[in-house]
Amino acid sequence: MEEQRREVLDVEGLRAHYARTSRQWAERHCGPRRSRRCVSVGTRTYRTWLLYLTAASVAFEQGWIGLSQVLGARSDPAARVAPATREGLYAPSAVDGAGAPGRCA
Q1: Is residue 67 in some structural domain?
Q2: Predicted structure pTM score
Q3: Checking DSSP bridges between strand 6-13 and strand 68-74, what pairing results, if any?
């Protein structure tokens, strides 16, 4: 990033989030719409996708794999300083009013 005159502003580890999300997706794929999904993509594709989601969930849960989101920006001394915390990211939004994680305020 430095070669491109960029600086790292924030790094967030998403391993726990992806463990939960991939597990929930795998559980949903085993639900009542399973036969419709098999017909729409084929049994082989369906089973491959389900195996991928299940294996990813276990790998994230066990810490065998991880995922990080890196926020970077052009280095500019005159630019405004990034917030010191993520508090604003999790505040209730004027758009959705729900304060859903990941939504900007």
Answers
A1: yes
A2: 0.65
A3: antiparallel
